[in-house]
Amino acid sequence: MTCALLFRLLLLMTLAALFQGKRFGPTSRLRYSRFLDPSNVIFLRWDFDLEAEIITFELQVRTAGWVGLGVTNRYTRVGSDLVVGGVLPDGNVYFSDQHLVDEDTLEEDGSQDAELQGLTEDAVYTTMRFSRPFRSCDAHDQDITSDTIRVLAAYGLDDTLKLDRDRTFVKSIFLLQIVHPDDLDIPEDTIIHDLELTDFLIPEDDTTYACTFLPLPIVSKKHHIFKFEPKLLKHNETMVHHILVYACGNASVLPTGISDCYGADPAFSLCSQATGIGHKTWAGSYQFPDDVGVSIGTPLDPQWIRLEIHYSNFHNVPGVYDSSGIRLYYTAKLRKYDMGVLQLGFFTFPIHFIPPGAESFLSYGLCKTEKFEEMNGVPVPDIQVYGYLLHTHLAGRALQAVQYRNGTQLRIICKDDLYDFNLQETRDLPYRMEIKQGDELLVECHYQTLDRDSLTFGGPSTINEMCLIFLFYYPRNNISSCMGYPDIIHVAHELGEEVSDSMEGMMAMNNVEWTPENIKKAEKACKEAQQTVIIKTIDEVVENTTGWIPEIIRAPRGPCLESSGGKVEPQDKTPAGFRAAPIALLGSSTTTLRCLPLAALLFGQGALSWLLATLQVGV
């Protein structure tokens, strides 16, 4: 291969990179950002290319020492990956892809899969910018997926690479956000309306669900709500776990005042249709896609909502008053579609049980859509799902929603295999997913209760459990929820308990010795039992049907990307596949090597590294 041919090839490859994906160079703007520590010392920016499966990070830390960024897991920092770098007093930089061999000790990976784009130090900050594959072929690198990612950040006061627990932080982040708020329109005629409690005395109980009923904005013609954000009193932020807004049917007779949502007065649990308007205290505002909105102002639209605020007062602090709520943004500039929310999952009541001491326990809730049209009163068009929100309590580890058509699994609609109770937020799907009349929808929730010595039952309290997924879709219909639960009598019989009704079945779970064998037997019985499916409309009309839990075909992991910065060790190649570099071009490697210095000068070291990976040569 001649140098001229090599340069022509490199130029074409460079142009292809510019036009085929989001290649983030050393000065490209990164759209997403977050502080990673309570004192706002560590600031992270990031962006990604879904097609190329490359993510770029920029870590800025208030230090003159080393900085590090990586990914860890829920249970231990051992095995976490950490990309570290810094600037020495003489101005030289160091940069390395490493992993933790124990809680405090770093070791360099045999495969260097992070590509440095910049490393600087000034009087205040050390800033490190690098890119890495979503999934490398190095077993020491944690994958970047559409799950919740536990981002690990650390730094030192000097250039000695030693982890200090006071300067090491973990923050759960949904890194692969599909839609950024900057990509969405803000109408010029935007109007703001607040839904909030007024001077509510937070009880000293661990858990309180406070509900009140409030009117939506009064408008003379149709408007669309397109955005919401939380209104939190600063000193009460840690007590407010979440805020939800439910739409009320216009035929509902609503109580006044504020009361326990799920207490003695059942009227305060009326209005069960989620609106897509809600807030988990660790999430920010959410804006709907530009073509959908929550309709208000027509005879078919709700006029009142139920505002639900979940307080967690675990320290039983007395005398705290709160006026939290939700701020709505709405407009007369109408969107194309009215949005709706469909609540799926395991019906929340004590038939849902999770044994203590379980390493893993799966629960299922089935939805059958065959009755939707009959209950809706008019034909139900195919719905287009664009977003979702996942919800369990503290024992939840993973959730997924699976779609079936004519008895065959069609797709996994959404999932999070690394679910974190402390990060619950509305997420956008990468593309719209269609649900047709007659489809079945299954929610699977994965729990772990190794830290519990008694049964966990379904219920609203944080120490109870839930298994819910909210699908955000258009066009809106009148169905508010579709949830299932297993025949508890069958489950009790499979566990050797003699019962004659559901109440006895629930009580019998307390008699079981929860050995690992019985935990697995209970999980199998719950999955094989007939499910009762409860379908509810916005006007509280309820109908039941029955069904069986179908099998779930697990999605395989995608191929890993070959290392571009070092030799991949044989033990690092994973069974899920290895995406090799393109086939080597025919020609003399010695000619290629002779051209490398000039190629690096003309096109830069990054382009040269790319070319070397393509030609499969070394320097």
Automatic annotation (TrEMBL):
Its cofactor is Cu(2+). GO terms for biological process: dopamine catabolic process; norepinephrine biosynthetic process; octopamine biosynthetic process. Transmembrane segments: none annotated. One of its GO terms (cellular component) is extracellular space. GO terms for molecular function: copper ion binding; dopamine beta-monooxygenase activity. Residues 40-156 form the DOMON domain. It holds the Pfam family Cu2_monoox_C. CDD domains: DOMON_DOH. This is DOMON domain-containing protein. It comes from Panthera leo (Lion).
